[in-house]
Every structure is written in structure tokens, then in C-alpha cells.
Amino acid sequence: MRASKSLQIGLAALLTASAFARAAEPPASRFALVGGKVVTMAGRTYDPGRVLVENQTIVAVGGAELDVPPRFRTIDAAGAWVIPGLIDSGTHLGLIEVDLEDQTNDLDDSMDLLSPHLRVVDAVNPASELIRVSRLTGVTTVLVAPGEGDVFSGQAAVLDLAGESVEEMTVRAPAMLCLGLGSDAVNRGRARSRFSTRMGLIGEIRAQLLKVQEYLKKQEKYRRKLEEHKVELASWEASQKPTAPVAPTAAAVTATQPPAALAGKEASKRPEPPDEPERDLKLEALAQVLERKLPLLVRAHRQDDIRAALRLADEFKLKLVINHGTEAYRVAELLAKKDVPVIVGPVDQQPDTFETLGARYENAELLRKAGVRIAIQTSDSHNVRNLPYAAGLAAAHGLPPEEALAAVTIEAAKILGIADKYGSLDKGKIANIAVVEGDPLQPASRLRHLFIRGKSIPLTSRQTELYEKWKAGR
Length: 474
Hints:
- It contains 15 helices and 16 strands.
- By secondary structure, the chain is α/β, with parallel strands linked by helices.
- The chain has a domain at about 85-210 and about 280-415: Metal-dependent hydrolases (TIM Barrel, Alpha-Beta Barrel), CATH 3.20.20.
- Strands 1, 2, 3, 4, 5, 14, 15 and 16 form an eight-stranded mixed beta sheet that branches.
- The chain starts with a helix and ends with a helix.
């Protein structure tokens, strides 16, 4: 059992006891957070500071000198940290509710090794109880990815943890296309008699990417022919327009008038459009990766799997993000040279399989020190709430605390491609804000307020409601 797992029950109880002990959160539309330590993650910290929010957007951030207009309601943040909402860069939130109940499990399709066309937004349950409990430590935004057993498992999405529908929650979809390397994919390939080694797996991936290249060539050829057809059609139509009549002689009319058979032949020369190639949704999904419209999120623990991913990226000119990267520290300089980011986690990964024998708690710091861009994930669904403590564990093993906080805020936003609106407290950004009593990366901290898109979020969950119901023995 992982070290952090043994703490989860205690942490959950601690968080539960703090969540329902506070008054209901005030409604949010136009307000100012005043008096707290404002850690913007944009290069400035104001202590005390102020953050002004109007509707969904941060309209001003500054120190005590920043005026609060009379129309803004004031919320006291004194004694607390005011930070951007935390971003978990790897979850399965909303895809699974009860592990052993198939009706609540949309995590992994598993019927086809090659499913790049599947989209998590088609399966996420916005009413999942796991969303409410995930927010109780300040997590506001997550990358939701499909399961990792297939080769191409589908398209991940970035979601905010508030909204009545997936459409309301969506920040970016699709955000990344997911590829699995290593033992899980090899074992599933063996079960389907497709391949049984890492060589076979990479061969399958390469073959699929080559198919995409041919598919794109056919599509481009079709587009060129379609443009040529438009030109030919316009020319043909112009040739069919009658010219100004000239009074011909009777002999000229007889000489120039075509026989009926010839007139029919001329009419049949209208240019025909080219045949459209048959569509393939799988290849179209993979085309987004080859055309660099989407990053390829690659599950890889061992360094040899990471190196294989880098070779594929070089060969097909892919935008690559390494997922997990348990042994990424062993190829840190190469990752830094190629500017390939790593979404590290679980931080407490144990050397409990052959893939993870090289696990080290110092992984995040070793990568950062080498110049690799990192984010931190829980790679979980039921315990996304442990994200700040995962960052704290990385800090306890060398990662500077400010860098650990960045790995779950601004650096995560950059890697996920949403930093223009998320990840820091700055004018014009989405008002995802956590007000935390104590160091946000420490288990003893308490969430005082949480805002998602400027809306105050109740700090309740099914656990807190059950506690309230039964605490008096009723």
C-alpha cells in the first residue's frame, strides 16, 4: 500500500470536519477578496493583497493601495492565502463512480486497442459525487483522460469542476490525445493476438501513423481536385451562356447547326466533381496529432518507453507530453533539450511493478533542476482532493515550495494549453480562486472559500452531509 494511501482516511476526516463547520459561502458576482496573502503565480505576491472579481473574471489584483469600488462586496481573507484554483493535470474524474460497479465505469472502453476517436466529454458525469469532494482542498480544474490500457485510448479534456452539464464545465476539448506505452498496452495486445512485445507495440503505433500520413495525402489530393473542378465548372458554365445574336444567313445556320447526337454529346461534357474519399474517424483523430493541432499524451514509466516516445516524436514531428514519467529523471537532460514536458505522478509512486522499479520521490525536483517543464497529477478519480499534498510531498523531497505550487497552477496551465485564462491571479483571467487558511500544500491547511468562474462553491460533499446527519446520533 502506498504511503499516502495510509493517510487518506485521516486526511479525509480532517478535511470533512473543517468543511461543514463554516457558514455557507456568500454568493459571488462582484466582490473583492481583501487582506489575505495574495500569491498570484504571475511573479508578484501581495501581503496583504486584494483581488477584485466581476462575474467570471479577475478585474484587478494589487496590494493594500488598490481601491475597492463601492459596488464591490468585500470578503475578508485576512490570515489566509489567496491562490489560483489548483489544476490536476491527470485524473479520471467523472468517468467512474464505484470501482466494482460496471454501470458507473466509463473509464476504459477496452473493446478496441485503437480508439483515438473516443472523447471523454461523451462519458463524463457532471453530477458525480467525486467532483464535490475533489473541490474541498482547492482543486478547481482537471484534465480528464480515459483509461491507459489501450494503445490509443481517446481524447482527454480540461474541465472546471462546476456546471450542470459537460458543456458548462468544458475549458478545452479535446485537449490531448492519449497513447499508452509499456506493460498495460503490451498485455492487451497479447490478449488480442496483435503483438506481444514492446517492439510489436511500437511497430503497431508506427503503422497507424503511416496510415494517417497516407490518409492526409488522399484528403489533400481530393481538395486539390475539388478546387480544379470548381475552376473547370466555372469555365464550362461561362461557355454555355448565349452570346449576343447575330443575324445569320440561312446557309450559315444550316452549316453550323450540330446534329441531335452531337448536341447530346456536348451537353454531357459538364465537368463531374471528384469522388470524395471514404472518411475514417480514427485516422481523422490521429491526424490532429500529426498536424500538431493536439499534443500526444504518452503513458510511459520506464526510461526505454520514454526514449521510444521521443523517437516517434522526432520521426513524425509530434508535440509530446510524457504522462507519469516514473523514470523520467534518468533522461532529464534529453527531455529538457527537446522541450518535452512531464506530468509527474503519482508523486508517491512505489517500486511495486517491473515498470516502476526506478521510482523516486525526488523525480519532480530532478526534472526541474535539469530544466524540464513539469506539472503534478494525482492520476486518480476518488482522491483528486490529495493533489495539494502530492505537491507538498514533492516539496518535501527537494522541489522548492514555490515550484511545487506552480506545478499545480501556472505550469500545469501552460502544459495543458490554458495559461491564457488559467493558472494565475491576473487581470483578465478566469476567477478560479482558493482562499486557504495555512500553507496550501500542507494537510493541516483549511479551505475558507472557493470560487470557480467567479461563483462561490459550497464546501460540502456527501461525506460532510453524512457527518451532519449522523453526528448527533439521529
